[in-house]
Amino acid sequence: MNIFSLNSKSPTGTRTTRALGVVAILGMTLLGVLGIFLTGEDVVQGSTVRMMYMHVPTAWVAYLAFIVTAVASGAYMWGKQHSLTFDRVAGASAEVGVIFMAMSLVTGSLWGRLTWGTYWQWDPRLTTTVFLLVTYIGYLAVRGLGGTPQQRAKRSGVMALLAVLEIPLVHFSVVLWRSLHQKASVLRPNGDVTMDGLMLFTLMFGLVVFTITFAWMVLHRQRVLTLIDAFNASGIDAAVSERRKEGQVS
Amino acid sequence: MTNQVLPFAGIVMVLFAFALDSDGILQRVAPGLVWLALLFSSIIIVQRSFAVEAADDALDALKVAGLSPAAVFLGKAVALMAQLLVFEVVLIVLALILYQVNISWAGFVLLVTLSIFATAGLAAMGALYGGLSTAGKGRETLLPLLLLPAVAPVLIGATRATEAAFGSAGTPLHEGWPWVGLLGVFGVLFLFGGTLAFGALTDD
Hints:
The complex is a heterodimer. By secondary structure, chain A is mostly helical. Chain A is built from 7 helices and no strands. The model of chain A is unreliable at 172-181 and 187-192 (pLDDT under 50). Chain B has one domain. Chain B has 8 helices and no strands. Chain B has helices at residues 5-19, 25-55, 58-64, 69-98, 105-135, 142-150, 152-166, 176-201. Chain B is globular and about 55 Å long. The chains are: A mainly alpha, B mainly alpha.
């Protein structure tokens, strides 16, 4: 049974997603313990640095989600079978990505209030991140336009491929423009890493845990979308057979 | 269009003056106001432009007639560009008069160049998303949501370059030309992207 297939006992749960869910919950708990209690304080920022363990993983996972959307859209459009599963994965991934991106902006805003003294700054990274969020909200609006699933898949596939080109723009905006936001401390151009051992581990661990959570959410949401499409299709079938019955002499 | 959308643009410019009524502020932000007014007017222009197509299913008729979607897109983009350029002329003249902006001949050359490149990008995105929002049948509210984020880079580049052309807040003229380069890149990218994507987005 592949991980995208459905089980009649519980509509969108399978062994794989249950295992993923358990791992995600345990991982989040461990991340919380590590982040709040076990890691040390930052020299400059004190305890407020703990926001990083949520803010950074949500941002990276949001980017991952948008890339998954683009790849799945490409797989739909250029795959031989034009399988709608790819389209639904793209849609589910975009929805989860928007949520994670919004979370990243909120946590970043709160963290900024503590460290910079302000909830918001119009520096390039923040500006382009909001821009990205609004673009994907537009993508979700295009998905809601109606029509057949194939029309939806084609329209949103094109939109996803246009939108994903913005992601490098956001990441390298810190390098290209003067900015208030901290420059990249892990993926620096010269490859050096400037973070304490346990903090770095917690950050990487947070990234892994959030990615597992993302995968769990996308799998479930993708299955729900499959059920919705099947329901809509059956609705049309029911309507057609009713029309046919009207034409029959009873 | 001329008896409805042009007055709208004019009124927007006047309302900006009411809202920002302080010494010197209007002159400093005049570039931004011109391009904002153009952007808001462009939503209406794009909607009317595609309402003409949707009225008798003209867009479908063109496709059935064998016209390639790229050709339809480019034609639409050129038409929009012409309309938007007319608007820009009017808005810039209004800014010169209402916001007490002064402009040199070199600044005028910069202004003309940046207007052409910025309008190309604006028209390309308008043609692409205008097509999509009429394909949705009655979802005109989708157009601003899609169009405005997509042309935000054009707004940024055009405003910065216009600041240099107007000399607002002492911006020197030569600082405008790199922004014109950026506008050119966006214009080319948007035209290219739109040519490829228009067919898929409006395929019903």
